[in-house]
Amino acid sequence: MKYVISKNPKNRSQLLTFEMTEPTLTGTYQGEVDLSSGIVHGYGKMTYSNGSFYEGQFVKGRREGQGTEVVVDEADLESKYVGAWVDNTMQGKGVATFSNGNVYEGDFVKGKIEGEGTLKSSNGDKYIGSWRSEKMHGTGTYFYGDGDKYEGEWQNDKRHGVGRVEYCGEGGEVQESYDGDWKFGQMHGRGKYVYKDRSVYEGEWVEGLMHGWGKFLFPNGNVYDGNYSNDKREGFGTLSYSEGHRYEGQWHEDSAHGEGTLIYANQDTYKGNWASDKKSGFGELQYVNGNVYKGEWEEDMASGNGELAYSNGDVYDGEWKNNLRDGSGKFECKKDGYIYVGGWVRGRKGGIGSITMPGTNDVFKGEFQDGRLVGPKLSDGSLVWAFAEDSDWGNEESNAF
């Protein structure tokens, strides 16, 4: 900085007016100087040719103490700093008003925002807390203009460490919140998230997604405890229903999928394969009344080949469709001792079938319609047989589904 004194004062500390030049700017200074050296010293104002200025205290030609600096940029927008200076640099407490309307009040170190301070943004946001190298760093609270709030740890302007975020509605009430670990601005580690519908997840997070082991409480009272991958239930987990049912087993893409066991509220138990939340493939369903079905499933219903053993000793082994005996199958009636082998339609004997009589092992073949035998004959076709109305032979057997 070069000074050109415009007049010769007699007193050492006296207000002077002189020209000054910077590498890129020229301007004038009005204020106190050290007469012995001709160096600015004391209180004064430097005004640059582009309209920028500094007004405040100087020590040996350098800004030192309290002062105000206004900087005009190439777009003629002003930024302003009012506060402490050390060795020509903003240092200590001060208030900076930026050209975009943001205002910072707090600590400065070597010309940069650092320490404790408050930043009020022109969009209504506000941050109160620690800074390092002009970035939010340490512990602080960020108030968003729309009412949201984050309180916790920061690193390089990002949520990092432990903190709580609250998402608010138009009335200011908290609608969603997260308490837990953060990494570079994302939920990462362990944390608890409360959703708008009051469902709650507590567990592990990776890069903002539920990932790892966690527990999810649904609004209807259902509870899932198990593994997650990319925000979806994946791997092993247990889902307890509010009605009393309980599923324990494999999951894929947020659905029961693979091997699993479902215990119903009435203690009926299914063990077997699942696909997209439905029984699919091979499985066994045990009823509390003693009935047991072992066989194939499709779309949550017995479909394909399967065996149903009744608690009274009856057994059906054959084809199923939509939880009904349908196709070809064998039925053994323990009470009456006969065996039926043949067709079934929608849970009843239908089509061609044969009955093996108890004791004699005589075989009768005939056509069944709607569960009843019509026109039975011996296998050689020589005899017509009529069943009594109250006989199980001519009636539908009860289904277990």
Counted beta strands: 32
Helix content: under 10%
Q: Give the end-to-end Cα distance, rounded to a whole number of Å.
A: 97 Å
Number of helices: 0
Mean pLDDT: 89
- Largest beta sheet, briefly? 32 strands, antiparallel
Determine the structural class based on helices, strands and strand pairing.
mainly beta
Task: Using the CA coordinates, give the radius of gyration.
Answer: 43 Å
- pLDDT below 50 for ≥5 consecutive residues: which ranges? 1-23, 382-398
Number of domains: 2
Tell the overall outline. Answer: rod-shaped
Task: Write a brief caption for the model.
By secondary structure, the protein is mainly beta. 0% of the residues lie in helices and 65% in strands.
Walk me through this protein's architecture.
With 401 residues, the chain is an all-beta fold. It folds into two domains: 1-92, no CATH class; 93-394, no CATH class. Helices cover 0% and strands 65% of the residues. The chain has strands spanning 2-5, 15-21, 26-34, 39-48, 53-59, 62-72, 78-86, 89-97, 103-109, 112-120, 126-132, 135-143, 149-155, 158-168, 174-183, 186-194, 200-206, 209-217, 223-229, 232-240, 246-252, 255-263, 269-275, 278-286, 292-298, 301-309, 315-321, 324-332, 339-345, 348-356, 363-369, 372-378. The protein has a 32-stranded antiparallel β-sheet, with no helix packed on it. The radius of gyration is 43 Å and the shape is rod-shaped. The protein starts with a strand and ends in a 23-residue tail after the last strand.
